[in-house]
Amino acid sequence: MNAPQDERLWHYLDGLLTPAEKAEVEREIHRSPELRQRLEAMRHVTHYLRAGKIEEPSRDFTAAVMGNLHRKTASGGLSPRNGLLLLLGIVVAVLSISFLMGKGSYDSQTLVPLDQLNAPGQVMPDLPSFHVNAKWIISALMVVAMGLAFVVLDQTVLRPFLKKRLLHP
Amino acid sequence: MTEREEHDLISRVLSGDEHAYRGLVDHYKHYAFTIAFIILDNRAEAEEAAQDAFIKAFQHLRSFQRQSRFSTWLYRIVFNTAISYQRKRKTVYHDIEKQILLHPHETGHELEREDKQRFVNQAIHQLNDADRMAVQLYYLQEFSLEEVAGMMQQPINTIKVRIHRARQRLAQELMHVLKQEALTL
Does the complex come out with an ipTM higher than 0.90? Predict the structure, then answer.
């Protein structure tokens, strides 16, 4: 299709041409069977698009809205695909850390010497030194990660799946 | 409903009369549902998305700036809600009627008006989503370019390009069918 010519034909159908331009387009259409065919296709498309009807919602639409005004609406959260990816990421991270823990990578303890933080000339209260057990912290983080994994599974995979089954049995 | 009546209803809702919201739902539900249906192409999902949008609009009514029209604000919420439904779903559900494919090469007869209609309907679903939505919303009664741009949160020029590209593509597809028809005569 010839783009500038088509643009003119669309404008002709939309009634955007001046009377002189309109008369010129009509002369061209009269002369060219190809242009007539093109215009017919365009006219049909316009007719079809204009015939797009306003859809009728269900009879209990208003009642359904009014009965749920204080319901928590679906948020724009994760899609099932992204949810699954996040879930997979968490599971891989937990498994990797479990493997490293099994190998003894976090068995060492770190001393945090707070009593040596006092800068010269500054009056600081005496602070005790203590040991940080990396294994204990990592275990706690893993429990949190597993909890998060269950929430992600529930919100982005299980609930949408069950909802869809209810909507489209 | 005049703009003043609309604002009165909104004021009543904001002052605690929730039942006044029924008037707004009744007035706008057809367009809201149609917009959601254009985007989702599935009645059950469109119904749910449109209802969700009305509930969101109710819960955020205080943030509505009365300088703009309530419909513009509401339809934007409907559009965003339907888009988020579309993103979440994995399977695309089409009405059975739209799955009846018309293959132009298989018909020896002149394409009847109804067949052409069905063909354009089929072709429109092959457009990219944004172009399809822009052209369908634009031709849906009442909506101007500015309103479609506001709803889709895109510049007017982008919407113009989308509409032009979409209908050009549709005409091209239809031209192809008409040529095939001429060859088989």
Answer: no
